[in-house]
Write a structure and sequence with these properties.
The chain is of the alpha/beta class and 267 residues long. Helix 4 packs parallel to helix 5.
Length: 267
Amino acid sequence: MTQISILGCGWLGLPLAKDLLENSFSIKGSTTSIEKLSVLENSGIQPYLIALSEDKQTGNLSNFLENSKILIIDVPPKLRGSATENFVSKIKNVIPFIENSPIENVLFISSTSVYGEDNLVVTEETKLNPDTESGKQLVQVEELLLSNSNFKTTILRFGGLIGEDRHPIKFLAGRKNIENPNAPINLIHQEDCIGIILEILRQNSWYETFNAVSPFHPSRKEYYTQKAIDLKLVLPEFNSENLTFGKTILTSKIEKVLDYKFIKPNL
């Protein structure tokens, strides 16, 4: 039975771990919350309390990686608002532990924010041009992992994450003067996030970079208005005075290389 270590059992990592268990993998999972250790253990996941910082890490990373062939890193940068952490340093401090472990393959969960907000049709070949601090640091981490010859890395760049308990319309409902009404959406459902990861593991698809968003790109105004109607929420109001357009993320590589069929194509 292949053992996988998941660094970061949060909104995506925990349901992913549960799904992997159902697919005959053995799972070690990390959390920064003492209270969540029992949640992991009760789910059949070997729990580890691990926290990363810029200059150190707490918890036993060596034991966490012991006997695992695959490491999934699902630790998002915390760089919104007033947060100023050095995410690159956090991941850089983990790399020696990976090098000294039996890990052969690393799957790094990244973001389409590495492309910035240019008015482009984006593929994996598009030049990276992040315009946020989070995107800039994700690019550096991708490069760190891809350039390391001690393990094979695949980069998975997700668009906006949604799920049954997480949807932007709950934040946008009733708001006024929302900018960028004609920008295309680039979202992906949690079920497809997990489905794509499973295919990467099943097919041993390493040394790859994949964009991962639903192949469904209506405008923000069209999509969020309809979603508010569907959920019986107050309609959002958009500012159409300054029309701008955003990037459209294409996922043809996932569909071609992995032969992946989206579970929630229309979100």
